[in-house]
Amino acid sequence: YKDLPSTILPDESSVEALAETPTPDMTGEQFSDSFNSNRNDWTEGFFEDEYGTIDYKIDGGYTWDVVAKQGVNQKSWASSAPVVEDFTTSADVTHVSGAENASYGLLFRVEDTDNLYYFSISDVGYYYVGLLENGVWTTLIDWTETAVINVNSINTLKVTGSGDEFVFYINGTE
After folding, report:
1. Is the pLDDT at 36 greater than 50, yes or no?
2. How remote is the C-alpha of 7 from its chain's centroid?
3. Is 173 helix (H, G, I), strand (E, B) or coil?
4. Which residues pair with 17 in a beta bridge?
5. How far is residue 169's CA from residue 174's CA, in Å, rounded to a whole number?
6. I need a labelling partner for 142 at 20 to 30 A (CA). Which of 20, 39, 157, 166 fits?
7. CA triplet 153, 171, 25: central angle to 5 degrees?
8. How far apart are CA 6 and CA 120, in angstroms?
9. pTM confidence score
10. Is the pLDDT of residue 162 over 50?
């Protein structure tokens, strides 16, 4: 998905990211995944194209191992996740190795590969929010520096959505 905003520089760097979804503490419809199996139909396996290679693994976490030949972007979501209007979603994410300026985060309000929202961070201390609508990206919050990102460590990302209003959190900070 070459159109996804990214700060990955074109090189042969390797990036490995790990995400875990904690059990939500909320009422109403709930969705969670411990990644002990692929019961929610996440993207899994090895893929290669002109942008590089990626190996998605589910093994108690959701691990992506990316080797970029040029700027590369990948996205994945659980096809069995419920469609909801108002929501709270969170995930513990870690950038394990590779380019420090690689971005990683949460997709939400996903309709299909051309219509979704993206909240991301990078280990160089920036966050970003974008809307992909009919295959065209709109920046909602441009790359913004923050001191609350834990470099090379676990970061808890959280988004709450009520109608068309969203609140974004990094490690508990709005």
Report:
1. yes
2. 14
3. strand
4. 64, 95
5. 4
6. 20
7. 115
8. 9
9. 0.70
10. yes
pLDDT over 50 (residue 157): yes
Cβ-based neighbour number of residue 8 at 10 Å: 22
**Contact in structure between 159 and 167 (CB atoms under 8 Å):** yes
- Residue with structure tokens 């109608």? 163
Spell out where the chain has E strands: 14-20, 45-49, 52-58, 62-68, 87-97, 103-112, 115-122, 126-133, 136-145, 155-162, 165-170
The answer to whether the beta carbons of residues 88 and 160 sit under 8 Å apart is yes
Report how far residue 53's alpha carbon sits from residue 143's, in angstroms, rounded to the nearest whole number.
26
C-alpha to C-alpha distance for 29 and 82, rounded to whole angstroms: 8
Look at the chain and count its residues.
174
Contacts of 21 (CB under 8 A, 6+ apart): 32, 33, 34, 35, 90, 91, 92
Tokens in use for 17?
A: 């990211």
- State the amino acid at position 158 in one-letter form: K
DSSP letter assigned to residue 125:
T
154: phi then psi, degrees, rounded to nearest 5? -70, 135
